Amino acid sequence: MIWAVVQQVGAQVATMIVFFVLAALLPPRDFGLVGMAGAWLAVLNAFCETGFGAAVIQREQLRPDHLSSTFGINLVVGLGLTLLGVALSWPAALYFRTPELQPVMAVLSLGFGVRAFGLTQAALAQRELRFRALAVRDLVSSIVGGATGIGLALAGYGVWSLVTMTLVSAVLGTILLWRLARWRPRRREMSRKAAAELWPFSSRMLGFNLLKALGQNTDRLIIGPLLGVHALGLYTLATRAVILPVTTFVGALGNYMFPRVARLQSERPKVRAVYRAVLIAILNVILPGLVALAVLAPAVVPLLGSRWNGAVPIVQVLTIAALAQAVIAPVGQLMKGLGRPGWLIIWSIGFTILTAVALWIGAARGLTGASIAYVIAHVVALPLILVIGWRLSGLGLLDLVKVSWRPAAGAVVLATALAVLSHLLAGHSPPVLVVGALAAGTMYLIALARLSPEFTGLAVRELRKLRLSGEEPAAVVAAAPRS
């Protein structure tokens, strides 16, 4: 589990540092432009992976022709999406009523073709649980891309520093995937038969990925045209500070959980144990982090410049939605790992519609109203997804209470400590505030060690694995049948 977390969290920490440095250098409008382009491109990106990568991970018996066929399909689709992204850049600019969006989206569309070359290698590495190698790859590409973006921002390139950062990270990430992969595609192994064997699962995952992309970007697709590029820039900062770290950490655990559950499909008690361990890790890490964000936002966000002050209430409101997302996400991995992609599609349709309607109504009251509506949609959907998790794993309401009350109590301790320190240190310099936050964090860790020994034991075991881990396992792909 620990390398799965390091893979995404390590890279995301570097990305977050870069993002906030760029936020201090660039205005909200530049981030709003990239956010508008990203909303459209994220929907197209759902087609880029085609669902075959998930089928590679989930399938019990995997042959080389499955991999080569998946590579060929991903490559054709990725190059096609590059052309489609360029073509749609003009309608996107009209939809958002922002002409300068067109060249930004057209250039960002090149990323589809770049990433398509590495999707199969990434899926195979994930299937083999090679998260350490993936962690190094993600961290290096994020650091190099971020350094490029900061350099261009300092040179005065504005929004193009953000665009270039994204493309440099994509190119380097793909190169590193090819260096770590032992497998290479072979044209003679590509076949319709192999693709057809993967299609029943991959087609439903493709449908889910599309609906997921729509659901995750409904906020930007609605806020952008209704409230404008400046408001979307503020919202982008808030989501980067609140939603993205949560989805990154939870996604890292999901990368671990999906192949694990897929291998344990017939052993429900073990599936329940994996689901429970993931929930324990999520709540003990995410809940205190969100509490700290909500309390410290009024003191921290203005450090980026007064132009970002409007993001403070948005950051505070979105902490609730982020917590709901953290609890919702593992159930999606259960549905994937246990072969229920049809359930995922139904869930995604309902949740996307609920979110879109709520945002449309809330946007009439401005950015804060839209953010509150976004939170309400998540809170309304939460009970249903927990019932689905119980049906699949057997982890019921009483188990959820046992899992959650300790981190909730620790979060109360942290919130109290931060509130007192924020009051006492009001008006002090940023270094003093940092020292105060670290003191509050120390108090939380002490409380956590007493309240949640199960989590601290899990953390110690995983960190020990991190220290003692050796080389990744070799690829396990069945030999292709000989004619």
How would you portray this structure in words?
By secondary structure, this protein is an all-alpha fold. The chain has helices spanning 2-25, 28-48, 52-58, 64-96, 101-108, 110-116, 119-127, 131-154, 159-180, 192-227, 229-241, 243-263, 268-300, 312-337, 341-362, 366-393, 397-424, 430-451, 453-468. α1 (2-25) packs parallel to α8 (131-154). The two termini are 40 Å apart.
User: What portion of residues is helical?
Assistant: over 70%
Largest sheet entry: none
- Low-confidence stretches are 468-483
Shape: globular
Radius of gyration: 22 Å
Element order: H for helix, E for strand: HHHHHHHHHHHHHHHHHHH
The total count of helices amounts to 19
Q: Which class do the helix and strand fractions yield?
A: mainly alpha
Percent in strands: under 5%
The mean pLDDT is 83
